[in-house]
Specification:
It contains 15 helices and four strands. The chain has 461 residues and is α+β, with helices and mostly antiparallel strands. The chain has a four-stranded antiparallel beta sheet with strand order 2-3-1-4.
Length: 461
């Protein structure tokens, strides 16, 4: 075979025969005439899978691994297309039912059939001192303390913290115990109108049945607040009947008044006890000073060293005057009769008087046994006794003042408004809650739809 014939045969084989691997030459760049001369070849499995994904169809799997089924491509039927189009709609209806219709239906059933009317009794009160507010009273007592007044030092100082104290008490377990004992708390919150209300009656399925559960429910049904600007405390009590709400509120106010009275009594007792203790201490101090003074007198054999000193001074003055008269007589007699026998006795008497004067002066301030050192100790003991006496008198006055103040009410609870008996329920707001549940469910459903559609759009190739 010649060179030209072999080249022609290779060209004919390349143009007229299909590829050895059996795949179609879809991507060939051959001329239209050559392409028309090729036989029709089905796409392989990989190409068919790609087409199926693009058309959102399920590809036909091969019957066995490694074999290519040569099946003609079938477009999806109308039923399958309808099912694919109906699937997002059914999901949307199901989510709408779960997120909007069902919660709204449950809220309508609860608020329309199960929820019981709750009545709120409200009372307002203030804490006062006689004739002035607590803040002014505390300031006045502080000023009296600074000036050292006896009545001020023994007064009961109060502050505006009493309002917060009463607020905490009204929400405490002590107030709960008082209301249980005096206001029939459990029967009021488990009355016949509330038997169907599974959320607000007590006991209910969501709270313990013991004291801890009752205290939690008490905190839900009873609220107390304090306005530090006006000094007004507000008490609100919920119950399932107006009479029960009013009775519980009145009982809690009585408990608050009892608390204030106990605080007053404790303050009065402390004040009187402090005054009496101070008086007892000063009385003991006075007794000790008197005992020291008595011991000094017995030891020194002097009742009053001051009076003894005055007696010595008077004696010295008399002796000095007598010595002066003798000196005058001796002088006159010496001038008139220098050799008179009377001069000797006169001079002897004057010398004796002068010796006595020296002796008396030695008794005053000569040594440790003289009167002057003992007089210093005596004056110190007397000063201590006088100071103890004055302090005891002041303490006894303070005791009497404290006892007088104890007869008056230091701080008292004054009711601004009595507990009311409401004629219209304050809760529940049935239509508002149903509408709120519906709106919240619809917003949640719209958010879910947006997120799910966005997720499906990003999942498709």
């Amino acid at each position: 075979m010649s060179r030209t014939a072999s080249v022609g045969a290779r060209r004919r084989k390349k143009v007229g025969s299909p590829p050895r691997d059996g795949r179609g030459a879809i991507g060939d760049t051959a001329s239209p005439a050559i392409f028309r001369s090729r036989p029709t070849v089905m796409p392989d499995a990989a190409q068919f899978t790609s087409y199926a994904k693009l058309l959102r169809l399920t590809p036909v799997e091969s019957e066995s691994a490694g074999t290519l089924p040569l099946r003609p491509f079938q477009p999806p039927g109308e039923a399958e297309v309808a099912r694919e189009a109906e699937r997002p709609r059914s999901r949307g209806l199901m989510s709408l039912a779960l997120l909007v219709v069902l919660p709204t239906l449950l809220a309508t059933v609860y608020f329309g059939l199960l929820a019981a009317d709750r009545y709120t009794s409200e009372a307002r009160f203030v804490l006062r001192m006689p004739g002035r507010s607590l803040a002014n009273a505390a300031m006045g007592l502080a000023l009296q303390n600074n000036t050292g007044g006896v009545a001020g030092s023994m007064g009961v100082a109060r502050s505006t913290d009493d309002g917060y104290l009463v607020q905490d008490f009204l929400e405490s377990r002590d107030a709960l115990s008082w209301a249980q004992a005096h206001a029939a708390l459990r029967p009021a919150w488990d009355a016949a109108p509330a038997r169907s209300d599974i959320l607000w009656r007590f006991p209910n399925p969501f709270e313990p049945k013991g004291e801890e559960g009752l205290y939690r429910h008490f905190q839900r049904m009873v609220t107390a607040s304090y306005d530090s600007t006006t000094g007004v405390n507000t008490l609100k009590v919920q119950a399932f009947s107006p009479a029960d709400a009013q009775r519980i509120a009145d009982s809690l106010l009585a408990a608050a008044e009892g608390l204030v009275n106990r605080l007053n009594e404790r303050a009065r007792q402390d004040t009187v006890a402090r005054a009496e203790a101070e008086a007892a201490r000063l009385r003991t101090r006075l007794e000790a000073a008197q005992a020291s003074l008595t011991a000094f007198r017995e030891r020194e054999r002097l009742i009053d060293p001051g009076q003894a000193t005055m007696a010595v001074l008077e004696t010295i003055a008399k002796l000095a005057q007598e010595a002066a008269l003798l000196s005058v007589q001796i002088g006159e007699l010496g001038k008139g009769s220098p050799n008179s026998p009377q001069l000797g006795p006169l001079r002897g008497r004057r010398a004796a008087i002068e010796a006595q004067i020296a002796k008396e002066r030695h008794r005053l301030a000569g040594d440790a046994q003289s009167i002057a050192p003992r007089l210093v100790e005596y004056e110190r003991l007397m000063l201590e006794r006088e100071f103890a006496e004055k302090a005891l008198v002041s303490a006894m006055t303070a005791v009497e003042t404290a006892r007088v103040e104890a007869q008056a009410q230091q701080v008292y609870l004054e009711r601004v408004t009595q507990p009311s008996a409401p004629d219209y329920p304050a809760a529940p707001w049935r239509f508002l809650w149903c509408a709120a549940v519906a709106v919240a469910g619809f917003m949640a459903w719209r958010m879910w739809r947006i997120v799910s559609e966005d997720t499906m759009a990003h999942a498709d190739p």
